[in-house]
Amino acid sequence: MKELNAIHLNGLRAIEAVGRLGSLQAAADELGVTVGAVSQQVIKAEGQLGRAVFERTARGMRPTSFGEPFLQKLNAGFRELAQAVGSVLRRDDAILVISVAPIFASRWLIHRIHHFSAAHPEISLRIESTTALVDLTASDVDLAIRIGPGNWPGVKAEFVLPQEMFPVCTPELAGRLRSPADLVDMPAVIDANDPFTWDVWLRAAGLDQPAPKTRHVFSDASLCLDAALAGQGVLLAWPILASWALDEGRLVAPFDIRVKTGMGYYFVTAPDRREPRKVMLFKDWMRRAIAESVGGTATAPATALPSSASRTSS
């Protein structure tokens, strides 16, 4: 394997990541470096190879005629390497590695995992917070929890909970709301990354009226919840996000109208991997915990969302 001495390993990793993920930004996110660093690593590795792996176009990085077969072999090699490392890391059944979206971890899971630990003190948790669906066949992640349509390729997705949206606000603001029609005069806290809009919810509620007036717009749903807790306005929330605040009475759901978004929460695992006992125990515990937390805040049967609306964030 003397040939490998001629090429820096980080450069090959950068090339493989860009080829597999399709962009410098996605590769940088996975590798934990800047876009500029990935670009420089790719350029340096191409220089060491003496061939261009990618063509730089207005639409991004595209494999060259040389790069296409080279990337396939490179991907296969790194996948085998990752599987070898992952098989060693997964030997410890006392550690459960879970990949979750940051907002799920901070707003729901972190408030409840002590109950799992009390029931199963022999299992330690390692929580990896990311919005990306990790490569479960080539990592040491035992279980991912994701929100979406549930049809991700190359994984096993097990439905847990439908995603529903409903208005929440402080008890003080709720005192000014006698019917959904009163929302038109209320300030709204908006999640800029959420495609599920007030217009969709109002239609489901049978209301032909303008949406609440936007007060503040945030790019993060967790910040939106903080703004709602501070009394800044009414927020379209979902049970996993707001259940603890509703349970504590810091927020209330003023109307018995919930709208399904067409998305759901899923347990996601590698399709060809035997499910260890620690994963089964966690899944059983989480199903019960979700039933308790969501059941405590449910006020009415969900209303079906028009098929044109969908939710992609978590």
Can you walk through the features of this model?
- Helix content is about 40%, strand content about 20%.
- The chain contains eleven helices and eleven strands.
- The strands form two sheets. Strands 3, 4, 5, 6, 7, 8, 9, 10 and 11 form a nine-stranded mixed sheet that branches. It has a two-stranded antiparallel sheet with strand order 1-2.
- Helix 11 links the parallel strand 10 and strand 11.
- Helix 1 (about 10-20) packs across helix 2 (about 25-30) and helix 1 (about 10-20) packs across helix 3 (about 35-50).
- The two termini are about 45 Å apart.
- About 30% of the residues are buried.
- Residues about 295-314 have low confidence and may be disordered.
- GO terms for molecular function: DNA-binding transcription factor activity; sequence-specific DNA binding.
- Keywords: DNA-binding, Transcription, Transcription regulation.
What is the average of the pLDDT values? 85
CATH class call of the largest domain: Alpha Beta
| Subunit organisation of the chains | single chain
Sheet with most strands: 9 strands, mixed
- SS content category: alpha/beta
Work out the helix count. 11
Helix and strand sequence: HHHEEHEHHEEEHEHEHEHEHE
Strand content: 15-25%
Distance between the termini: 44 Å
- Describe the global form: globular
Roughly what percent helix?
25-40%
Number of domains: 2
